[in-house]
Each structure stands twice: as C-alpha cells, then as structure tokens.
Amino acid sequence: MENKAKYDFWQNHISSCENSKLTQKEYCSKNGLAIQTFGYWKRKIRNKGFVSDKPMFFPLAVKQNGNGNKPGRILLSIREGRFKIEIDENFNETILKKLIVALERL
Which sequence spans correspond to the domains of the chain? Predict the structure, then answer.
C-alpha cells in the first residue's frame, strides 16, 4: 500500500472509531485491526496533523455576568493538535480554566 493510501486507510479508521461509541479495543476487534498498529497510526497521524483537513468546531456557551455586563471576547484557534486562545481582559477566569482543561483532552 502506498504512503497516501496508508494515511487515508488509517485516517478513515481513526475517524470512524472516534465517531463510534466503541472503545479503540472494541473497534479494532470488530474491524480486524491490531490495536498496537491502530495506536501507532493514530499517534503518527495526530503528530503530523493529518487527522482532518476540516476545521473543528466546538460549542462554547458564555453566559452574561451577574452584573449585566457583557462577557469578554474570546478567540480560539485549533491547528494541527495545538490551540491558541486570545481573550479580552473581562473574560471570566473560571470559564477560561474549564476551556483549557477541555482543550488539553483533545
């Protein structure tokens, strides 16, 4: 299998696994894949940023402050497994901490 075909093959399986309700072990067993090989390709593709060329969107609910002031603005960029957060000074510190924890799980 040529390199591009390998990437496509594993990228499709990784995406399918992530969209399924199965664990990696269950997914690999069901699809006749070696769990070690699946893990290898998942790391390889993630480290190279090959998992998806499509932008990823995550819902982010920001509530108004109790004093009626609008919350600070936030700009979130995710590229190749890395993220960048730009915030206004009025942004809530607790929400920012929760956002960072969620992003680190990606």
Answer: 3-48, 55-106
